[in-house]
Amino acid sequence: MGKSNVIGFACAYTPLALIHASGFMPCRILPVEDCPDQAAQLLHDNLCPHVKRLLDRAMSGNLPELAGMIFMNSCDAMRRLYDAWQIVRPGDKAILVDLPVTASESAVGFFCAELKRVAGVLETWGGTAITRDKLAGSIRLYNQLAENFSKLRQAVQNGGINNGPVVLQEACNMASCEAPEKAVGQLEALLADTGVMQPDDGVPVYLFGNMLPEPAAFALFEACGARIIGEDLCTGSRLFKAIEADKDGDIFLDLAAGILRGRPCARTFEGSQPGRLAGDIVEEAKKQQARGVIGYTVKFCDPYIARLPNIREALKNGGIPFLFLEGDCTMRSVEQQKTRIEAFIEMLR
After folding, report:
1. Distance between CA atoms of residues 114 and 239, nearest Å
2. What is the DSSP string of 249-311?
3. If you count Cβ atoms within 10 Å of the first and of the last residue's Cβ in the chain, which end, N or C, has fewer?
Protein backbone atom coordinates (compact mmCIF):
# COMPACT_ATOMS: atom_id res chain seq x y z
CA MET A 1 0.00 0.00 0.00
CA GLY A 2 3.03 2.26 0.05
CA LYS A 3 4.19 4.64 2.74
CA SER A 4 0.77 5.90 3.76
CA ASN A 5 -2.62 4.33 4.32
CA VAL A 6 -4.35 7.69 4.76
CA ILE A 7 -7.11 8.79 2.39
CA GLY A 8 -8.00 12.45 2.72
CA PHE A 9 -11.54 13.74 2.39
CA ALA A 10 -13.33 17.05 2.74
CA CYS A 11 -17.10 16.44 2.83
CA ALA A 12 -19.54 14.89 5.30
CA TYR A 13 -21.09 12.82 2.47
CA THR A 14 -17.86 10.83 2.01
CA PRO A 15 -18.34 7.02 2.32
CA LEU A 16 -16.02 6.53 5.29
CA ALA A 17 -16.92 2.86 5.83
CA LEU A 18 -15.99 2.09 2.22
CA ILE A 19 -12.58 3.71 2.66
CA HIS A 20 -12.01 1.77 5.88
CA ALA A 21 -13.08 -1.53 4.30
CA SER A 22 -10.41 -1.07 1.64
CA GLY A 23 -7.68 -1.05 4.30
CA PHE A 24 -7.20 2.73 4.27
CA MET A 25 -7.80 5.22 7.07
CA PRO A 26 -10.11 8.16 6.28
CA CYS A 27 -8.73 11.50 7.46
CA ARG A 28 -10.66 14.72 7.08
CA ILE A 29 -8.62 17.67 5.86
CA LEU A 30 -9.96 20.47 8.04
CA PRO A 31 -9.56 24.21 7.36
CA VAL A 32 -7.92 24.78 10.73
CA GLU A 33 -4.23 25.27 9.96
CA ASP A 34 -2.81 28.77 9.58
CA CYS A 35 -1.19 28.67 6.13
CA PRO A 36 -0.21 31.49 3.77
CA ASP A 37 -3.03 32.72 1.53
CA GLN A 38 -2.06 31.26 -1.85
CA ALA A 39 -5.33 29.84 -3.19
CA ALA A 40 -6.13 33.11 -4.98
CA GLN A 41 -3.49 32.17 -7.56
CA LEU A 42 -5.95 29.57 -8.87
CA LEU A 43 -9.37 30.34 -7.41
CA HIS A 44 -11.54 33.47 -7.48
CA ASP A 45 -11.51 35.67 -4.37
CA ASN A 46 -15.28 35.34 -3.97
CA LEU A 47 -15.22 31.58 -3.58
CA CYS A 48 -15.94 29.36 -0.57
CA PRO A 49 -13.32 30.05 2.16
CA HIS A 50 -13.45 26.39 3.18
CA VAL A 51 -12.25 25.30 -0.25
CA LYS A 52 -9.63 28.04 -0.40
CA ARG A 53 -8.19 27.17 3.01
CA LEU A 54 -7.90 23.52 2.06
CA LEU A 55 -6.06 24.54 -1.10
CA ASP A 56 -3.80 26.79 1.02
CA ARG A 57 -2.90 23.71 3.07
CA ALA A 58 -2.21 21.70 -0.07
CA MET A 59 0.00 24.43 -1.56
CA SER A 60 1.89 24.80 1.73
CA GLY A 61 2.44 21.07 2.12
CA ASN A 62 0.64 21.25 5.47
CA LEU A 63 -1.04 17.86 5.12
CA PRO A 64 -0.63 14.35 6.45
CA GLU A 65 1.11 11.97 4.09
CA LEU A 66 -1.66 10.83 1.77
CA ALA A 67 -2.28 7.68 -0.22
CA GLY A 68 -5.01 9.56 -2.09
CA MET A 69 -7.87 12.07 -1.88
CA ILE A 70 -11.59 11.57 -2.33
CA PHE A 71 -13.58 14.64 -3.39
CA MET A 72 -17.37 14.63 -3.34
CA ASN A 73 -18.95 16.67 -6.12
CA SER A 74 -21.24 18.34 -3.59
CA CYS A 75 -21.08 21.88 -4.98
CA ASP A 76 -19.30 23.85 -7.67
CA ALA A 77 -16.67 25.12 -5.23
CA MET A 78 -15.71 21.56 -4.24
CA ARG A 79 -15.55 20.64 -7.92
CA ARG A 80 -13.12 23.51 -8.45
CA LEU A 81 -11.03 22.28 -5.51
CA TYR A 82 -10.66 18.91 -7.21
CA ASP A 83 -9.41 20.65 -10.37
CA ALA A 84 -6.99 22.92 -8.49
CA TRP A 85 -5.70 20.09 -6.28
CA GLN A 86 -4.49 18.19 -9.33
CA ILE A 87 -2.56 21.27 -10.45
CA VAL A 88 -0.81 21.99 -7.14
CA ARG A 89 -0.32 18.32 -6.15
CA PRO A 90 -0.10 16.41 -9.45
CA GLY A 91 1.45 13.39 -7.73
CA ASP A 92 -1.62 12.77 -5.53
CA LYS A 93 -4.09 10.08 -6.49
CA ALA A 94 -7.54 11.65 -6.51
CA ILE A 95 -11.08 10.76 -7.45
CA LEU A 96 -14.18 12.93 -7.86
CA VAL A 97 -17.41 11.23 -6.79
CA ASP A 98 -20.69 12.50 -8.21
CA LEU A 99 -23.26 13.15 -5.48
CA PRO A 100 -26.99 13.37 -6.25
CA VAL A 101 -28.92 16.36 -4.89
CA THR A 102 -31.95 14.24 -3.98
CA ALA A 103 -32.48 11.00 -2.08
CA SER A 104 -35.01 9.48 -4.49
CA GLU A 105 -34.90 5.81 -5.40
CA SER A 106 -33.24 6.55 -8.73
CA ALA A 107 -30.70 8.85 -7.05
CA VAL A 108 -29.82 6.14 -4.52
CA GLY A 109 -29.35 3.69 -7.39
CA PHE A 110 -27.06 6.13 -9.20
CA PHE A 111 -25.03 6.78 -6.04
CA CYS A 112 -24.78 3.03 -5.43
CA ALA A 113 -23.09 2.69 -8.83
CA GLU A 114 -20.74 5.55 -7.93
CA LEU A 115 -19.77 3.83 -4.68
CA LYS A 116 -19.00 0.64 -6.57
CA ARG A 117 -16.80 2.68 -8.90
CA VAL A 118 -15.02 4.17 -5.87
CA ALA A 119 -14.55 0.67 -4.45
CA GLY A 120 -12.81 -0.38 -7.65
CA VAL A 121 -10.52 2.64 -7.50
CA LEU A 122 -9.64 2.02 -3.84
CA GLU A 123 -8.88 -1.62 -4.60
CA THR A 124 -6.52 -0.45 -7.34
CA TRP A 125 -4.84 2.06 -5.03
CA GLY A 126 -4.38 -0.34 -2.11
CA GLY A 127 -4.42 -3.80 -3.61
CA THR A 128 -7.00 -4.98 -1.06
CA ALA A 129 -10.29 -6.49 -2.20
CA ILE A 130 -13.40 -5.01 -0.59
CA THR A 131 -15.52 -8.01 0.35
CA ARG A 132 -19.08 -7.85 1.62
CA ASP A 133 -17.94 -9.01 5.07
CA LYS A 134 -15.26 -6.31 5.25
CA LEU A 135 -17.69 -3.57 4.26
CA ALA A 136 -20.33 -4.86 6.69
CA GLY A 137 -17.74 -4.86 9.47
CA SER A 138 -16.68 -1.29 8.67
CA ILE A 139 -20.30 -0.14 8.65
CA ARG A 140 -20.82 -1.74 12.08
CA LEU A 141 -17.72 0.04 13.39
CA TYR A 142 -18.90 3.44 12.15
CA ASN A 143 -22.38 2.71 13.52
CA GLN A 144 -20.76 2.19 16.91
CA LEU A 145 -19.00 5.52 16.49
CA ALA A 146 -22.33 7.18 15.62
CA GLU A 147 -23.96 5.60 18.70
CA ASN A 148 -21.16 6.81 20.96
CA PHE A 149 -21.54 10.32 19.59
CA SER A 150 -25.28 10.17 20.22
CA LYS A 151 -24.61 9.24 23.85
CA LEU A 152 -21.99 11.96 24.15
CA ARG A 153 -24.37 14.60 22.79
CA GLN A 154 -27.00 13.50 25.28
CA ALA A 155 -24.47 13.77 28.11
CA VAL A 156 -23.58 17.29 26.95
CA GLN A 157 -27.25 18.30 26.85
CA ASN A 158 -27.74 16.91 30.35
CA GLY A 159 -24.80 18.92 31.67
CA GLY A 160 -22.73 15.83 32.41
CA ILE A 161 -19.53 17.19 30.83
CA ASN A 162 -17.76 20.40 31.74
CA ASN A 163 -17.44 22.68 28.70
CA GLY A 164 -19.55 20.10 26.88
CA PRO A 165 -19.92 21.75 23.45
CA VAL A 166 -16.17 22.41 23.32
CA VAL A 167 -15.35 18.83 24.29
CA LEU A 168 -17.88 17.52 21.77
CA GLN A 169 -16.35 19.49 18.89
CA GLU A 170 -12.87 18.39 19.88
CA ALA A 171 -14.16 14.80 19.78
CA CYS A 172 -15.70 15.35 16.32
CA ASN A 173 -12.41 16.70 14.98
CA MET A 174 -10.49 13.81 16.53
CA ALA A 175 -12.84 11.15 15.15
CA SER A 176 -12.73 12.65 11.65
CA CYS A 177 -8.93 12.46 11.56
CA GLU A 178 -8.19 9.22 13.46
CA ALA A 179 -8.79 5.54 12.78
CA PRO A 180 -12.37 4.66 13.81
CA GLU A 181 -11.15 1.92 16.17
CA LYS A 182 -9.16 4.51 18.12
CA ALA A 183 -11.98 7.05 17.99
CA VAL A 184 -14.50 4.55 19.41
CA GLY A 185 -12.17 3.88 22.35
CA GLN A 186 -11.58 7.58 23.04
CA LEU A 187 -15.31 8.30 23.01
CA GLU A 188 -15.95 5.42 25.40
CA ALA A 189 -13.35 6.89 27.74
CA LEU A 190 -15.10 10.27 27.57
CA LEU A 191 -18.46 8.65 28.29
CA ALA A 192 -17.01 6.81 31.28
CA ASP A 193 -16.06 10.17 32.83
CA THR A 194 -19.47 11.80 32.46
CA GLY A 195 -21.15 12.85 35.67
CA VAL A 196 -24.54 14.03 36.81
CA MET A 197 -24.61 17.80 36.99
CA GLN A 198 -27.04 20.61 36.40
CA PRO A 199 -26.80 22.27 32.97
CA ASP A 200 -25.25 25.71 33.10
CA ASP A 201 -27.46 28.77 33.16
CA GLY A 202 -26.65 29.83 29.60
CA VAL A 203 -29.48 30.62 27.22
CA PRO A 204 -30.34 27.46 25.19
CA VAL A 205 -29.52 28.01 21.50
CA TYR A 206 -29.70 25.68 18.51
CA LEU A 207 -26.89 25.99 15.94
CA PHE A 208 -26.95 25.05 12.25
CA GLY A 209 -24.78 25.67 9.21
CA ASN A 210 -21.81 24.10 7.48
CA MET A 211 -18.17 24.55 8.56
CA LEU A 212 -17.39 25.38 12.19
CA PRO A 213 -14.62 23.01 13.33
CA GLU A 214 -12.95 25.34 15.83
CA PRO A 215 -13.68 24.28 19.45
CA ALA A 216 -12.78 27.86 20.43
CA ALA A 217 -15.88 29.07 18.57
CA PHE A 218 -18.09 27.04 20.92
CA ALA A 219 -16.18 28.46 23.89
CA LEU A 220 -16.92 31.94 22.52
CA PHE A 221 -20.66 31.19 22.28
CA GLU A 222 -20.60 30.07 25.91
CA ALA A 223 -18.65 33.18 26.94
CA CYS A 224 -21.39 35.26 25.30
CA GLY A 225 -24.01 33.56 27.49
CA ALA A 226 -25.25 30.86 25.09
CA ARG A 227 -25.65 27.16 25.83
CA ILE A 228 -25.46 25.22 22.56
CA ILE A 229 -28.03 22.49 23.14
CA GLY A 230 -27.90 20.99 19.65
CA GLU A 231 -26.27 21.50 16.28
CA ASP A 232 -26.53 20.52 12.64
CA LEU A 233 -23.12 21.14 11.08
CA CYS A 234 -20.97 19.51 8.40
CA THR A 235 -18.17 19.38 10.95
CA GLY A 236 -20.45 18.06 13.69
CA SER A 237 -23.46 15.77 13.88
CA ARG A 238 -23.84 15.42 10.11
CA LEU A 239 -20.63 13.41 9.65
CA PHE A 240 -21.22 10.28 11.72
CA LYS A 241 -24.59 8.68 11.03
CA ALA A 242 -25.80 5.11 11.45
CA ILE A 243 -26.26 3.03 8.30
CA GLU A 244 -28.86 0.26 8.20
CA ALA A 245 -27.48 -2.66 6.21
CA ASP A 246 -29.64 -5.63 5.17
CA LYS A 247 -27.58 -8.79 5.57
CA ASP A 248 -29.12 -10.26 2.42
CA GLY A 249 -29.38 -7.19 0.20
CA ASP A 250 -26.94 -5.12 -1.86
CA ILE A 251 -24.75 -3.59 0.84
CA PHE A 252 -23.59 -0.84 -1.53
CA LEU A 253 -27.23 0.13 -2.05
CA ASP A 254 -27.72 0.24 1.73
CA LEU A 255 -24.64 2.42 2.11
CA ALA A 256 -25.81 4.78 -0.64
CA ALA A 257 -29.27 5.10 0.92
CA GLY A 258 -27.84 5.67 4.40
CA ILE A 259 -25.57 8.46 3.21
CA LEU A 260 -28.13 10.22 1.02
CA ARG A 261 -31.06 9.89 3.41
CA GLY A 262 -29.32 11.22 6.48
CA ARG A 263 -29.93 14.74 7.71
CA PRO A 264 -29.52 16.89 4.57
CA CYS A 265 -27.43 20.01 4.13
CA ALA A 266 -28.46 22.98 2.00
CA ARG A 267 -27.11 21.45 -1.21
CA THR A 268 -29.74 18.68 -1.00
CA PHE A 269 -33.13 19.39 -2.53
CA GLU A 270 -36.37 17.45 -2.55
CA GLY A 271 -38.89 18.66 -5.12
CA SER A 272 -41.77 17.23 -3.10
CA GLN A 273 -40.54 18.99 0.06
CA PRO A 274 -38.83 22.24 -0.98
CA GLY A 275 -39.02 23.61 2.55
CA ARG A 276 -37.71 20.53 4.33
CA LEU A 277 -34.43 22.08 5.50
CA ALA A 278 -36.21 25.04 7.10
CA GLY A 279 -38.82 22.74 8.62
CA ASP A 280 -36.15 20.46 10.07
CA ILE A 281 -34.40 23.40 11.72
CA VAL A 282 -37.62 24.68 13.28
CA GLU A 283 -38.62 21.19 14.42
CA GLU A 284 -35.25 20.45 16.00
CA ALA A 285 -35.04 23.86 17.70
CA LYS A 286 -38.44 23.33 19.28
CA LYS A 287 -37.60 19.75 20.23
CA GLN A 288 -34.47 20.95 22.02
CA GLN A 289 -36.47 23.80 23.64
CA ALA A 290 -34.13 26.41 22.20
CA ARG A 291 -34.95 30.05 22.83
CA GLY A 292 -33.14 31.07 19.67
CA VAL A 293 -31.30 29.77 16.62
CA ILE A 294 -27.88 30.77 15.28
CA GLY A 295 -26.99 30.00 11.68
CA TYR A 296 -23.29 29.99 10.86
CA THR A 297 -22.02 29.47 7.32
CA VAL A 298 -18.90 30.29 5.36
CA LYS A 299 -19.10 33.25 2.99
CA PHE A 300 -20.17 32.76 -0.63
CA CYS A 301 -21.93 29.46 0.11
CA ASP A 302 -24.54 29.54 -2.64
CA PRO A 303 -26.68 26.63 -1.33
CA TYR A 304 -27.19 28.32 2.03
CA ILE A 305 -27.60 31.77 0.52
CA ALA A 306 -30.45 30.35 -1.57
CA ARG A 307 -32.13 28.69 1.43
CA LEU A 308 -31.78 31.47 4.00
CA PRO A 309 -34.94 33.46 3.10
CA ASN A 310 -37.05 30.32 3.55
CA ILE A 311 -35.27 29.41 6.80
CA ARG A 312 -35.67 32.93 8.16
CA GLU A 313 -39.38 32.96 7.30
CA ALA A 314 -39.97 29.52 8.86
CA LEU A 315 -38.25 30.54 12.09
CA LYS A 316 -40.23 33.79 12.18
CA ASN A 317 -43.49 31.89 11.73
CA GLY A 318 -42.40 29.51 14.47
CA GLY A 319 -41.75 32.40 16.85
CA ILE A 320 -38.05 31.58 17.14
CA PRO A 321 -35.50 34.45 17.09
CA PHE A 322 -32.72 34.00 14.56
CA LEU A 323 -29.17 35.30 14.20
CA PHE A 324 -27.23 34.66 10.99
CA LEU A 325 -23.43 34.81 10.94
CA GLU A 326 -20.90 34.38 8.12
CA GLY A 327 -17.22 33.60 8.43
CA ASP A 328 -14.08 32.62 6.56
CA CYS A 329 -13.08 29.49 8.50
CA THR A 330 -10.92 31.45 10.93
CA MET A 331 -11.50 32.26 14.58
CA ARG A 332 -10.85 35.90 13.74
CA SER A 333 -14.07 36.06 11.75
CA VAL A 334 -16.02 34.52 14.65
CA GLU A 335 -14.46 36.82 17.26
CA GLN A 336 -15.32 39.88 15.15
CA GLN A 337 -19.00 39.05 15.64
CA LYS A 338 -18.85 38.69 19.41
CA THR A 339 -20.84 41.88 20.00
CA ARG A 340 -23.67 40.66 17.75
CA ILE A 341 -23.74 37.30 19.52
CA GLU A 342 -23.81 38.96 22.95
CA ALA A 343 -26.64 41.28 21.89
CA PHE A 344 -28.64 38.34 20.51
CA ILE A 345 -28.24 36.30 23.70
CA GLU A 346 -29.16 39.29 25.86
CA MET A 347 -32.35 39.72 23.80
CA LEU A 348 -33.27 36.09 24.51
CA ARG A 349 -32.97 36.37 28.28
Report:
1. 19
2. S-HHHHHHHHHHTSS--TT---TT-TTHHHHHHHHHHHHTT-SEEEEEEETT-HHHHHHHHHH
3. C
Domain ranges of the chain: 6-133
Angstrom distance (rounded) from CA 54 to CA 35: 9
Please state the φ and ψ torsions of residue 173, each to the nearest 5 degrees: -65, -45
Note the pLDDT tens digit of each residue in 33-55.
889 999 999 999 899 999 999 99
225-234: burial string, b at 16+ Cβ within 10 Å, e else: bbbbbbbbbb
Amino acid letter, 212: L
Determine what percent of the chain falls in helix, strand and coil, rounding each to the nearest 5: 50, 15, 40
- Contact between residue 153 and residue 168 where contact means Cβ atoms under 8 Å apart: yes
According to CATH, the topology of domain 6-133 is Rossmann fold (3.40.50)
Contact 191, 151 (CB under 8 A): yes
List pLDDT tens digits, range 285-334.
999 999 999 999 999 999 999 999 999 999 999 999 999 999 999 999 99
> What is the C-alpha to C-alpha distance for residues 53 and 46, in angstroms, rounded to an integer?
13
